[in-house]
Automatic annotation (TrEMBL):
Pathway: Pyrimidine metabolism; UMP biosynthesis via de novo pathway; (S)-dihydroorotate from bicarbonate: step 3/3. This is Dihydroorotase. GO terms for molecular function: dihydroorotase activity. It comes from the Bacteria. Residues 47-234 form the Dihydroorotase catalytic domain. The lineage of its organism: Bacteria, Bacillati, Actinomycetota, Actinomycetes, Geodermatophilales. Its cofactor is Zn(2+).
Amino acid sequence: MTTYLIKGAKPYGGEAADILIKDGRIAALGDSLEATGAEVVEAAGLIALPGLVDLHTHLREPGREDAETVETGSRAAALGGFTAVHAMANTDPVADTAGVVEQVWRLGQEAGLVDVVPVGAVTVGLKGERLAELGAMADSAARVRVFSDDGHCVADPALMRRALEYVKAFDGVVAQHAEEPRLTVGAQMHEGERSAKLGLTGWPAAAEEAIIARDVLLAEHVGARLHVCHVSTAGSVEILRWAKSRGVQVTAEVTPHHLLLTDACAESYDPVFKVNPPLRTDADVEALRAGLADGTIDAVGTDHAPHAVEDKESEWAQARPGMLGLEQALAVVIETMVEPGRLDWAGVADRMSVRPAAIGRLDGHGRPLAAGEPANLVLVDPAVRAAVDPAALASRSRNSPYAGRELPGRIVATFLRGTPTVLDGKATR
Ligand SMILES: NC(=O)N[C@@H](CC(=O)O)C(=O)O
Ligand SMILES: [Zn+2]
Ligand SMILES: [Zn+2]
């Protein structure tokens, strides 16, 4: 294995230091390190952070390899500074058996760009009728700890309760896509003044908040871990704050797009802005930023949702919901949280690496930048601003909501257990 000497990077944005990477680990971190034979990475001005961890990625394999594969999504992740991603279960076939999660896990290891951690479905076929083989997925080579029917809500409260009880046995967590389906029939965008004006069926905030309120009560009652996917409303943040103050074991994530964009984007009728849950109001965006800053929201989860051109470039009502996120996630967090002074770099490391790794119970990720730790890390240049060019993305899909938008932060290098997956801003494989 090549030894790397990173010169003059700023760990967590602090004092510049050298980082020596050897045999997959951080061998030393300090001033003026030297190592004969090491490959030198000049990193003056760059911020060093632990490798990012995503709790919410759609890789589309098996089933929609035309939109994304484990390999192309892994490359997008590495280029975004990630060293681990949780692959959502809404594939075809659904990841609801040990066989499918082991296949996804193995494909991730073969691609070798990030650790692909499969999420297991909560119910068979995501149908919300009976529990999938949660224990077999947990015991499989994929060691599944996060279970989600994402794309669908586990709407039946009795089934949700049983899932929460079941995953306690192996320290798992149920990640809920909080959407009361009876309140979102035909929904196209956030329900409010703009949906009325545009004549599009609304997706009310209450459809999300009602499920979160119900689920935190269930999690409290059975003493289990609940995670809330893509929180999008101010009311949801309030409910989470209340639940945490009661000691409920609940965690939550916010997507980069919900931190930056609003329902005003729908006025273009460009389906690239159609997503579940929908883009909300300025007041919601503000509450989400505040919730992420004070830790009520634990993590940023990308909800990277690649879609093929024919599923996205159609009329708004026909288009699939979802947008890309992996390659611009850190950029959006810098723009919305770091530059306005709401989160420092240690805070970014906490919300994008430490806490998501802890929620997923991942070994070797979300670890501090310190001697002896696994060398999972990212180097980012916060000074570079560039316009996003969808054609230049590594994802197989092109549905980026940031096309043409200037964003800060260039990912210069990513290391996975001491091996660079990105160097000079380019994927190494
Ligand atoms: N976010 C989305 O709009 N779409 C996701 C599903 C989901 O996250 O609910 C997808 O799989 O495309
Ligand atoms: Zn979802
Ligand atoms: Zn999703």
